[in-house]
Amino acid sequence: MFLKNNVTKEENSNKTIEKKPYSVKDSYFWRINASLALASFFIFASMYAIQPLLPVFVDEFQISVSVSSLSMSFTIIGLIVGLIILGFLSDRMGRTQFIKISLLGAIFPFLLMPITDSFIIFIILRFIQGFALAGLPAAALAYLHEEIEPKSAAFATALYISSNALGGMAGRVITGIVSDAISWQVAFYGLAAFGGLILILTHFLLPHSKHFQPSRLRFSKDIDGFLFHLKDPQLLLVFGLGIVLQMSFTGVWTYLPFYLQEEPFLLSLHTISYFFLAYGLGVIGSPLAGWLSSFIGLEKVRIGGMLTLGIGILFTVHNSLPIIVVGLCITCLGFFTAHSLTASSVSETVTHHKGSASSLYLVSYYIGVTLGSSALAPIWENFHWKGLAVLLGLIPMVYLLVSRSIPHGRRQNTSNSAYMNK
Length: 422
What we know:
Layout: H1 9-18, H2 27-48, H3 54-60, H4 65-93, H5 96-112, H6 119-133, H7 135-147, H8 150-181, H9 184-205, H10 219-229, H11 233-260, H12 269-273, H13 280-296, H14 298-315, H15 321-349, H16 354-375, H17 377-405, H18 411-420
Helix pairs in contact: 2-5, 2-7, 2-8, 2-9, 3-4, 4-6, 4-7, 4-16, 5-6, 5-7, 5-9, 8-9, 8-13, 11-14, 11-15, 11-16, 11-17, 13-14, 13-15, 14-15, 14-17
GO molecular function, one term: transmembrane transporter activity
Family: Belongs to the major facilitator superfamily.
Keywords: Cell membrane, Membrane, Transmembrane, Transmembrane helix, Transport
């Protein structure tokens, strides 16, 4: 608006056309989706690539299972810090540059980690990488909803979340196979090269923001809005759900490789890597959940996803590999169903500082990753897989019972109205 006096009527007309949000009929819609799909594929592959390698680190660095799991936990701690900082900065400085910086920052640690002999330095590099990885999730969803019309944004979001699942699956599977056949160092160099290619493609494909409006609010005002969400009981239940869902899900994939390498299975890392293909159910789980929720309601589908997650985890206590595989597939379907709908419900229920609310959900989500990585180590060491799996399977069910017993009402809308009238 402040440039209005400096442009001609013709330029104003062109700006009006340019500012029209993209739809599925526009080529830029598909360029945006291709760019973010590729970027998120690499980011989530980078995040979870080390998960099947934890037993390898135990042997190579001569460390305990608990210490090995820190390579995952510190990545997520860096990610949480990055989500908070980069989320605020992206609201002021724009979206696309943070997406590209995220890719660049994820690449360099893969070049440095293979040449270190110190696991402490390895963990520090993973923390730095985690911070850099946050640039994409901190900006991507906001970018989608700014640049794409509402009717098409839901479809674009489903594609984005599906690429998250696909990247997480590919990172685990490919890294495990390459590490078993050659070495984990070669796998990391391969990821760095792949990331460089994705960075180049994203640089040329991803359109500049047309609808981004930088935040003009004082930093303290943003902090007030951020903290206000933490006073809303209904949002706190949603944030708690993010922790519970991801803690159970991450706990399964963190400690399952240790279990499958022992008696009676004695599986190789190469074979264990194929178990991560169960993530494929997550690729279809997110859009399927969105489709079903439009017919029978979000809450019913989310409850079904939570129950499915718990039941799938309980299947893995069996000593039969086929049943374990079935259980993992059910687990992935249930998790991505519940997670995608929970993430969507955050933006739909708040009326102000939606970016902050979404960031808080992501923070809670990745707190769950941290808890599922390292905090569960004592349970693994004392009760082994069956004790751990039973606990992880029951947690979402117990949380569901507790949250359903708390009166819901219209507390959220009332809280938001009170804030807007302040």
